[in-house]
Specification:
This protein is mainly α. The chain has two domains: 1-95, Leucine-rich Repeat Variant (Alpha Horseshoe), CATH 1.25.10; 112-237, Leucine-rich Repeat Variant. Helices cover 71% and strands 0% of the residues. The chain is built from 16 helices and no strands. It has helices spanning 3-14, 22-32, 43-56, 62-72, 78-82, 84-90, 92-95, 100-107, 112-120, 126-131, 133-144, 149-157, 160-165, 169-182, 188-215, 222-234. The longest helix has 28 residues, at 188-215. The relative contact order is 0.08. The model has no long low-confidence stretch (mean pLDDT 95).
């Protein structure tokens, strides 16, 4: 745990508590799919704390930023691993040039949808992904072919925000290729992510999604097929 990590850790402990109700704690941990303990602190409150810390430490170097993330992604608490998303949002200059091999390494340390999605669902937008497409495309492909369920889910969820923000054909192609590659899987971490990405694709590619669903009707996860078709028909999730 480096010095910045220690500061953040103390900040969390001073403004939260361990769950006093063991049953409630177990329920929340099971819901998030994490094997780690959680602090009893609201997400909004945690974000305020981290935002304040970031403002006070706005001039940390890129190396310090990467070292801090590496330390947090090894944290014993769920809260340490998910607050990395707040750091990625605040330090946008460093995020945009983040070494993707480091991101891949950190994804291996995440378990459960909540930990994975905290880093992947809204940290990287279309503009910055497309600006480094020659790096991102092979990285996403590598993640989709990984033995790690966390990395495979990440290969889908990392495309959610870019797909929402852009109709770029490169993003669309990567999304469909990844879905087709993983659609045979039964793990709910993958099937739900496929459904999510398909529904996001509808915003810019409704007809193509409809045709894709028809073509792969017998191979797609049932939940993905059902939810995507409902989104096409009603416009609702």
């Amino acid at each position: 745990m480096n010095s910045f990590h220690q500061e953040i850790f103390r900040l969390l402990l001073e403004n939260s508590s361990r769950y006093s109700d063991e049953k409630k704690a177990l329920f929340v941990e099971n819901y998030c799919g994490t094997p780690r303990k959680l602090l009893e602190i609201k997400t909004a409150d945690r974000r305020k704390l981290i935002k304040s810390w970031c403002k006070e430490n706005a001039r940390i170097s890129n190396k310090q930023f990467l070292d801090l993330l590496d330390s947090l992604y090894s944290g014993e608490l769920y809260d340490e691993r998910v607050l990395t998303a707040d750091l990625l949002r605040f330090y946008s200059e460093y995020r945009k040039k983040l070494p993707l091999n480091s991101l891949g390494k950190w994804l291996l340390r995440l378990e459960g949808w909540a930990e994975i999605d905290s880093t992947c669902q809204s940290s990287f937008g279309a503009e910055e992904v497309l600006a480094r497409w020659n790096d991102w495309q092979p990285f996403l492909t590598k993640m989709s072919e990984s033995k790690s369920t966390s990395q495979r889910r990440a290969s889908l969820v990392l495309l959610v925000k870019p797909t929402r923000e852009s109709d770029d054909s490169r993003i669309k192609k990567q999304a469909f290729v990844t879905i087709e590659k993983l659609m045979h899987e039964k793990d709910i971490l993958i099937t739900k992510a496929i459904s999510w990405l398909l529904r996001q694709l509808i915003s810019h590619h409704k007809e193509e999604v409809g045709a894709f669903l028809d073509e792969h009707e017998t191979k797609l996860p049932k939940i993905a097929l059902r939810e995507a078709r409902r989104k096409i028909a009603t416009g609702k999730k």
